[in-house]
Amino acid sequence: MEQLPLILFLMAACWMDLARQKIPNWLTLSFIPLALAFHAFVGEGPAFALTGLVYSFIILFPFFVLRILAGGDVKLGMAIATFVGWQVFLEALLYGLMIGLPLVLILAWRRVGWQGFKTTFSRYGIILGSRRYLAPAENEVAGLKVPYGPALALGAALAVVLNELQLFTLVS
C-alpha cells in the first residue's frame, strides 16, 4: 500500500501525456517534495530520496540536452527516482526503454499508418542516396512527436512490482 501514491502519480502522468502530449510541471514538481517527505517520515529516509533525485538528474539531463527526451519526461523520471530510489529507477529506466520502442511504434502506427512508415523509409533512402538532408513531412513517422511518459511510467510500475514481489531485480 505504500506504493499507492506512486501508482496514482504514474496513472495521472500517463493519462496527461497521452491526452495532451505534455506532463504538467505542477504534477511532477509537486510529487518530488511529496516523495522527499514520504521518505523522511515513513520510508527509507531523506538521503534515499535525494540520491534518487540526483542520480536521475545526472542520467536524464543529457537526454534532454540532446533532445531525445522532453522536459516533462525528465521531470517524470526524477519524480519516479525520488520515490523509488536510484536502484529501482535504473531498472525502471531500462524497462521503460524496452517497453518504449514497441509502444512508440504502435502510437505512430495509429497516427500515420503504413503509408507514414513507407514515406519515412523512402525519405531515408533519398537522404542516403543524395547525401542531403530532407526534413520530415507531417504525415510520416519521423515528423511525429510521440509521448514517452507512458513508457517510463509502465517501466516504473513493472520495476516496482518485480521488486516488491522479489521476482526479479537487475540492480541489487
From TrEMBL:
Keywords: Membrane, Transmembrane, Transmembrane helix. The chain crosses the membrane at residues 45-66, 78-109. GO terms for biological process: signal peptide processing. Residues 6-104 form the Prepilin type IV endopeptidase peptidase domain. It holds the Pfam family Peptidase_A24. GO terms for molecular function: aspartic-type endopeptidase activity. Gene3D superfamilies: 1.20.120.1220. InterPro entries: Prepilin_IV_endopep_pep, Prepilin_peptidase/N-MTase. One of its GO terms (cellular component) is plasma membrane. Belongs to the peptidase A24 family. This is A24 family peptidase. It comes from Oceanimonas pelagia.
